[in-house]
Design goal:
The longest helix has 19 residues. Helices cover about 50% and strands about 5% of the residues. It is mainly alpha-helical. The chain has a single domain, classed as Hypothetical protein af1432 (Orthogonal Bundle). The structure holds fe (ii) ion (2 copies).
């Protein structure tokens, strides 16, 4: 898989997220359709970018916002599958994403909590300003994706994801 960034995307942002984008398991999110037309990798990148920008503007921890935003849906499986606990996917997948994130990366408590609460009001109440940013950014990105509006990184080819050839 090849990921191309336009010059509009600040290098400070890319520095925060590039270690996660080198992980093959994480990149496999590109195989899963998300909100009809998008895929889970692009959706996660968009939530991350919007969260990073909001955190910057509000003087919050932009690194935690970018990373937890990127990892919030780190679930490499089809959301139509039954969950192992029998819970609705809306309640189950944040826990799966947090567990998977901790398995593959060094995740801070603040990042983990933000992943766990991103489906608020379905699930726990966000505990930090960064967690509130991520749950808001997730909803903004979901609405734009469902309405087929190119937004944030999906706009003006700020990021282009190409599957590996062959
Ligand atoms: Fe989610
Ligand atoms: Fe999401």
């Amino acid at each position: 898989m090849e990921i191309q960034w336009s010059e509009e995307v600040p290098p400070e942002y890319l520095t925060e997220i590039s270690p996660i984008l080198r992980n093959r398991e994480f990149l496999s999110l590109g195989r899963y359709v998300h909100h009809h037309k998008s895929n889970r990798l692009l959706h996660s990148m968009n939530v991350s970018y919007v969260s990073w920008k909001m955190a910057r503007r509000l003087g919050c921890d932009e690194k935690a916002a970018a990373r937890a935003g990127l990892l919030h849906d780190f679930c490499p499986y089809d959301f139509k599958e039954e969950t192992p606990t029998g819970e609705h996917q809306a309640f189950f997948h944040p826990k799966a994403a947090a567990e998977n994130s901790c398995l593959h990366f060094e995740v801070s408590d603040k990042e983990r909590e933000a992943i766990l609460s991103h489906m608020f009001p379905l699930g726990p109440v966000p505990k930090s300003r960064e967690a509130w940013i991520i749950t808001a950014a997730d909803k903004i990105c979901a609405v734009t994706e469902l309405c087929h509006v190119a937004f944030a990184l999906a706009r003006r080819d700020r990021v282009v994801i190409r599957p590996a050839l062959g």
